[in-house]
Structures are given as C-alpha cells and as structure tokens.
Design goal:
Strand content: 5-15%
Largest sheet: 6 strands, parallel
Structural class: alpha/beta
Radius of gyration: 19 Å
Shape: flat
Distance between the termini: 25 Å
Length: about 210
C-alpha cells in the first residue's frame, strides 16, 4: 500500500510519447494483412443492448465463426486456417443462448460475459459475486468485471484489491478481465494504481476503456 501511494505519473512525458506513437510508420502489404487477421482473432465480438434476444445473439455467433468473407480469405490463402474472433461477449442472461448456438455450430469459441454490475459498477458486492457465479454456471468461460470507481476516487486501495480478489475467486476456472473505465478515474496516477492493483488481485488480464 505504501508503494501504491507513492506512484507519480509525469503527464507531459506521457503526452509527448503519445504524440510520438502517432508518427510511427504503419505496416503495408502482406504484413498489414497478416496483422489485421491477427487482430480479428483477438476481438471479443459483443452485443450489450437492452433489446438483445436469442435471435440476434445467434446472428452474432454466426458472425463470430465467419468474421471475414470467404472470398477474401481465399484470396489471402487463409480460408483453411480457422480464422474466428477471440470470443463472443454478452450479458449473463444471454450466455446460454450463445453457448448453445456455438455448440450447435461445432465451434469452440469461448463465451465471455460482462458481470459485477456492468457498466456502472454501482451494485452491492454480494450482487456482483452472485452475477459472476451465475454467468459461469450458464457456461461463460471469460468474465469481464467492472470495478467500483468510487473506491479509486476515494483512495480505498485495499478495498479495491479485496473486491477484485473476491471477483476472481467467484470466477472459479473462468478467465477474468478487469474493466477500469479509465475516463472516470480522475487522473493518470489513479489509472496506474488501479491497473497495478487489478493485476495483483486478479492474477489475469487487466484491460480498460
């Protein structure tokens, strides 16, 4: 905790580096195509709408299995490489629909589920943990949790650690990713601290938006 409290971020240096990144040369030709294909395999194809139904989840799963037109893959000689997205991401209530559709399609794409009070995080911890357990029970192999931003904004770092640790435990064998909602954390220092705590408490991938 003492180490976390001493974190300092040099904002001008961060801004300068971000400007330099924009000037980096981009890949061209076959290298660009290869990296774009790789990017597709890392995507969580997602639907998180209030009007989601089994039918639009089924369409999403079909797109997940066939993310790129067959003629384009043949032109790149990649039609037989099994290019799919990395996962299908839905709300917990739609996990079973996605799991059953992908299973029927003979596809092993994992189903991810947002949980833990997504997107606001303004949900009691007990409810967050119950939602995670239900999503895993329904067949989700990845859980995307969202942190309580109030814990960051009020400097409750031990509380944040404990919340993420309990969420990780509730995931059981499912992979867990942590959404930080960086635009609501107030400062780059808070983003850094929250990132480090998420990685320490969660043991797995930490990502943000």
């Amino acid at each position: 905790l003492g180490w976390i409290s001493k974190v300092y971020v040099n904002r001008p240096a961060v801004v300068r580096h971000a400007e330099q990144i924009k000037k980096w040369k981009t890949l061209k030709g076959n290298w660009q195509a290869a990296w774009l294909l790789k990017a597709v395999t890392c995507i969580d194809l997602t639907t998180l709408s209030g009007d989601d139904t089994p039918s639009n989840v089924q369409r999403l799963c079909f797109k997940a299995k066939h993310p790129i037109r067959e003629d384009l893959l043949k032109a790149l000689d990649m039609h037989d490489k099994g290019i799919t997205v990395g996962a299908v991401c839905v709300y917990p209530a739609r996990v079973s629909d996605a799991v059953n559709t992908l299973k029927a399609a003979g596809c092993d794409i994992p189903v991810a589920s947002v949980a833990a009070g997504f997107p606001s995080g303004q949900t009691p911890l007990e409810t967050k943990l119950a939602e995670i357990r239900l999503a895993v029970e329904y067949g989700a192999r990845e859980i995307d949790i969202v942190i309580s931003r109030s814990l960051v904004l009020t400097g409750q770092w031990e509380g944040l650690y404990e919340e993420i640790r309990l969420c990780r435990a509730a995931c059981g064998g499912a992979h867990m990713k942590t959404i930080l909602a960086t635009g609501e954390l107030g400062s780059l220092a808070n983003v850094y601290k929250a990132s480090m705590i998420a990685m320490m408490a969660g043991k797995y991938t930490c990502f943000s938006f």
